Amino acid sequence: MIALQNRQASHSYFIEERYTAGIQLLGTEVKSLREGKASFNDAYCVIIEGEAWIKSLHIAPYTHGTANNHDPLRDRKLLLQKREINKIQSKLKEKGLTLIPLRIFFSDSQLVKVEIGLARGKKLADKRESLKRKEAEREIRRGLASN
């Protein structure tokens, strides 16, 4: 099962809540995702007129596509229930919260899903602290593996 992670998200944000959403894609986009050709650089989610959208998610053009290949940076609609969108929208009004994509994966029924998260930005000191914690955990794992 292919899953594409937004590794930068855990470094730059505290993830407070996670949601799973479907995503409206074209056929060549799905084929490109199966090859693992997506980039989360600068990707974010917005709610416009009661609909959730993902912006700046780069899905590379399909290598075997024709002239009708998709635009790599087009806005894509996220498929969420109205009550989830309303809940997210009310929380986004809080200061400092943003909605970011965390990972893209294929469900058991081979549908493309996006895990999105309500996130609060980390300060520089918080980033340093999380790096220290990860390094300490890595050292502990190395010590256990060598025994």
What would you say this structure looks like, in words?
It is a single chain. This protein is of the alpha+beta class and 147 residues long. It has a single domain (3-122), classed as Small Protein B, Chain: A (Beta Barrel), CATH 2.40.280. Helix content is 33%, strand content 35%. The chain is built from 4 helices and 9 strands. The chain has helices spanning 7-12, 27-34, 82-92, 124-146, and strands spanning 3-5, 13-23, 38-39, 44-48, 51-55, 58-59, 76-79, 97-106, 112-121. The protein has a 7-stranded antiparallel sheet. The chain has a two-stranded antiparallel ribbon with strand order 3-6. The longest helix has 23 residues, at 124-146. It is globular. The relative contact order is 0.24. The mean pLDDT is 87.
Uncertain runs with pLDDT below 50, 5 residues or more?
none
H-E order = EHEHEEEEEHEEH
Look up the CATH topology.
Small Protein B, Chain: A
The chain-level mean pLDDT equals: 87
- Give the helix tally: 4
Portion in helices = 25-40%
